[in-house]
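Build the 3D complex.
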Amino acid sequence: MSVQTFTTATSVDDAVAAVAAGARPVAGGTDLVVGARSGKSTMPESVVAIHRVAELHGVESLADGGLRLGALASHAEIAASDDVRSRFTALSDASAIVGSHATRAQGTVGGNLMNASPAMETGGPLVCLGATVTLRSPSGTRTVAVEDLWTGPGKTSAAADELLVGVEIPAPPAGTGSAYLRLEYRRQMEIAVVGASAAVTVADGLVTDARVAMTALSATIRRIPEAEAALIGSDGGSAAIESAGAAVAAASTPISDVRGSADYRRAMAAVIARRAIDQALSRARGENA
Ligand SMILES: Cc1cc2nc3c(=O)[nH]c(=O)nc-3n(C[C@H](O)[C@H](O)[C@H](O)COP(=O)(O)OP(=O)(O)OC[C@H]3O[C@@H](n4cnc5c(N)ncnc54)[C@H](O)[C@@H]3O)c2cc1C
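Done.
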């Protein structure tokens, strides 16, 4: 490690000033520090610890029915929230399976999003739930749709002087259900071979809105409009789910690596997508929690 300067911020202004001066923020450190310790990356020369910034903590249900997550909300806190579990269920599914108990206690949603791994757990659910992130720099604050945050593996559209301060999710319309599932080789300490997120809205027996996003299937997490089109206007029955799964496989551009070949990933993408969509539909219909 080659850290020359290490400071600890206690306010957002301090943290933003440090980042603008060239320091890299460290939240839980489970990507940044663990990656450097294992030799996958090197530590930046200048680091600002942000874990003591009170304004960046919290999981807050908003008066308008939406949800606000502080950048430092941990996966454990998010998974433990009754509101997240009941109304933003795909996010709860995802947060509950990040790493191990220790990873979930330490790792944050802000770190997960800004690390920009195509296999990150919370990204797909947040895309499907229509979330935005708030980025702050010395020149002001701006809001970016989560689906526009990533530009490639490990890369975001945030400027070098921007700190992610929070995530906002709008109130889901009545009749909405969502789910996240991943294909994994073991229950804990494993990242997704393929992950699928779905959020669907059902009214009078028909699917009126659908979002499907795939994880670990291309350079960034992305929605599959063809799968969404196969669901919208349908009765959400097996034929529509089958078509959506086929659309996911057709649109996927997976890599081959130690976890699976591209062909295997493409085939499994259809299976995992169908299961996530089916579960989201069941939840939208109130068939299970
Ligand atoms: C054993 C193990 C298992 C894991 N399993 C999973 C898993 O199953 N699924 C999964 O998705 N991830 C997994 N991870 C990765 C990691 O735990 C998560 O990505 C976690 O959410 C990262 O959060 P953090 O706060 O620790 O990030 P940090 O390591 O502190 O930061 C990560 C990156 O984000 C930047 N950053 C952090 N906060 C901000 C901010 N507010 N504004 C701007 N930039 C910021 C940092 O500069 C750094 O580049 C695992 C990690 C370990 C070590």
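Residues 24-32, 34, 71, 98-99, 103, 106-108, 110-112, 114-115, 120-121, 163-164, 189, 191 surround flavin-adenine dinucleotide (CB under 6 Å).
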